[in-house]
Write a structure and sequence with these properties.
This protein has helices spanning about 35-40, 45-55, 70-85, 105-125, 130-160, 160-165, 170-180, 185-210, 220-255, 260-265, 270-310, 315-325, 325-350, 360-390, and strands at about 15-20, 25-35, 60-70, 95. The model has no long low-confidence stretch (mean pLDDT about 85). It contains 14 helices and four strands. Helix 8 (about 185-210) packs antiparallel against helix 9 (about 220-255), helix 9 packs antiparallel against helix 11 (about 270-310) and helix 9 crosses helix 12. The N and C termini lie far apart (about 105 Å). The protein has a four-stranded mixed β-sheet.
Length: about 400
Amino acid sequence: MAPAGTFPLPRTRAPECRLERRGSDAVLHLAGDWIARDTGVRDARTAKQLVVDANGAARLRIDTGKLGRWDSALVVFLQDIREAATGGGAGRAIAIDEQTIPQAARRLLMLAALSDGAAATKAERIPSVPLLARIGRPAISAWGGATAACALVGDVALRTGAALTGRLRSRAGDVLSLMRDAGAGALGIVTITNALVGGILAFVGGVQLRRFGTQIYVADLVGIATAREMAAVVTAVVMAGRTGGAYAAQIATMEGNEEIDALRALGIPIRDYLIMPRVVALVTMMPLLYVYACAVGLLGGMIVTVTTVDVSAPAYIQETQRAITFTHMSLGVAKSVVFGAIVALAGCYIGLRAGRSSAAVGQAATSAVVAGIIAVIALDWLFAMCANALGI
């Protein structure tokens, strides 16, 4: 006996479905409780088999006289019956008489049919894109991006004279702040990376040259490689990840906050206010960072050479002075200036073309880092080819 104040739950009857032939018609008898939680949902293959068994009937009537409680389990089963009957599961379509189905279930079936029809219509309306369009649209987009990048480079080049003579429409405090961030703020990571690269060059070169008894030439290897290539390239890659990405994120954030639109509305040139200060700051600080990176790289190579190879510190310093020439340093300085300009331009360009969402800021920063690193490596290859052709 149930406790006072409670009501006993009705006992669930197992769902039943039975097909009966009556002349030219087939009758599907549904009985019991069709509750998804208690009895589950019938497999679609059951509905298909029932329709196959009704093959040859002119009409399929559904009898729900003994139907008990029901929920989505009944609606799903009836939907499977309808799809099997109209889809030719019995060899040809069979008309369904749904008069005895509960009104609520018929409404749900109607909504399901409308939803399926809308989805099919939408799928049919999606036009196929021609191959030429699939190729042409990315090509046109790439051409537009290249044109915008060339225009930005040209604008910056034309404003170089104004920057050298101090006629830029930008605040000196902004330029000094950017120079401090790109210079003194980057000393830590520049020190670590270049010292480790110098040490790696010295260790690899010392292991190989010691076999021939020429370990003194480790100083030549480290000195020339650091002055011509590694100091400028490693520093530029570090600045692309640290400063180039930051420039892109800053400008993309301003784009999302509509600050750049406000500057344009006020007649303030974006080129002088945002782009040129960053280009000037990075181009100015990169040669100084390059010289510092050379010193750190040579120091790291000397420490590794003295501790792992039978070479004294005075001999290493003397051989380094003999190996590094003014040409090597001049080439490194020229590389650092060009690398600084390309890293700053890449960050500013991608930041200006970023979207206005918060996700676009992260995408712009990532794209600026990748573009800056690829541009640095490509330009270094170009420098190497030109230096080889000129015999430098």
